[in-house]
C-alpha cells in the first residue's frame, strides 16, 4: 500500500534525506520517496496503521503534514 502525504516546510534535498532516513527506521516501511519541489512524501508500507507514526515522525522533524491519500 502507498501512503501519499502533502508536506509543507521541506526546502532542499537535505530535508528530503532527513525525512527518508527517519521514516525508513519504522518497522513495516518498505520504501520512502520525498520531493521538496512537489511538497510530497510517498511511503510504501505493509499496513495502513503506520500512517500515524509516519505523520508524527515528519512533524517531529519540523515539517507540517497538510494532506494524505492512499493508493
Overall strand count: 4
For the CA atoms, what is the radius of gyration? 11 Å
How would you characterize the largest beta sheet?
A: 4 strands, antiparallel
| Global structural class | alpha+beta
Number of contiguous helices: 2
Number of domains: 1
Q: N- to C-terminal separation?
A: 6 Å
User: What would the CATH topology be?
Assistant: Alpha-Beta Plaits
Task: State mean pLDDT (0 to 100 scale).
Answer: 97
The CATH class label is: Alpha Beta
Order of helices and strands: EHEEHE
Q: How would you write the strand order of the largest sheet?
A: 2-3-1-4
Description:
- The protein is of the alpha+beta class and 71 residues long.
- The protein is globular and about 30 Å long.
- A four-stranded antiparallel beta sheet has the order 2-3-1-4.
- The N and C termini lie close together (6 Å).
- The protein has a single domain, classed as Alpha-Beta Plaits (2-Layer Sandwich).
Task: Give a quick precis of the structure.
By secondary structure, the chain is of the alpha+beta class. It contains 2 helices and 4 strands; from the N terminus they run E-H-E-E-H-E. The model has no long low-confidence stretch (mean pLDDT about 95).
Amino acid at each position: 500500500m502507498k501512503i501519499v502525504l502533502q508536506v509543507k516546510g521541506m526546502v532542499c534535498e537535505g530535508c528530503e534525506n532527513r525525512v527518508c532516513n527517519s521514516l525508513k527506521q519504522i518497522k513495516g516501511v518498505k520504501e520512502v520517496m520525498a520531493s521538496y519541489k512537489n511538497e510530497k512524501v510517498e511511503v510504501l508500507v505493509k499496513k495502513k496503521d503506520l500512517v500515524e507514526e509516519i505523520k508524527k515522525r515528519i512533524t517531529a522533524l519540523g515539517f507540517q503534514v497538510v494532506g494524505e491519500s492512499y493508493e
